Description:
By secondary structure, the protein is an alpha+beta fold. The chain is built from 3 helices and 6 strands. Strand 4 and strand 5 form a beta hairpin. The radius of gyration is 14 Å and the shape is globular.
Amino acid sequence: MPFVEFDLKTGMxxxxxxxxxxxxxxxxxxxxxxxxxxxxxxxxxxxxxSNVVVRGLSNxxxxxxxxxxxxxxxxxxxxTVGDTADTxxxxxxxxxxxxxxxxxxxxxxxxxxxxxxxxxxxxxYIDRAPLGL
Length: 133
């Protein structure tokens, strides 16, 4: 069962932003790319770590499908959240469990830049090298 170990109301100015973070985390924890895509604008960009920027929903879907296909589970612990009118920041630890059973916990920080209530630019600052993928 998906969970978030944090009361996301703390540090948030906007209820809509809190709901958006929950939707993003829920989509990851249920390994549901379609749900994730529903939080993005049509012209969204996604950058994970030092990887190249992925542009557009179809490319983001392929990237997300490819990554989720290697995993059996994702779990988040959110430590800190904050927001402005058009940006949400949150950081914590994420545990990825590979289909082999290997689990790796990594620190991350996400910056979500918004347009009309959806994510236009998703930046995940994380080093996924320990996953060995």
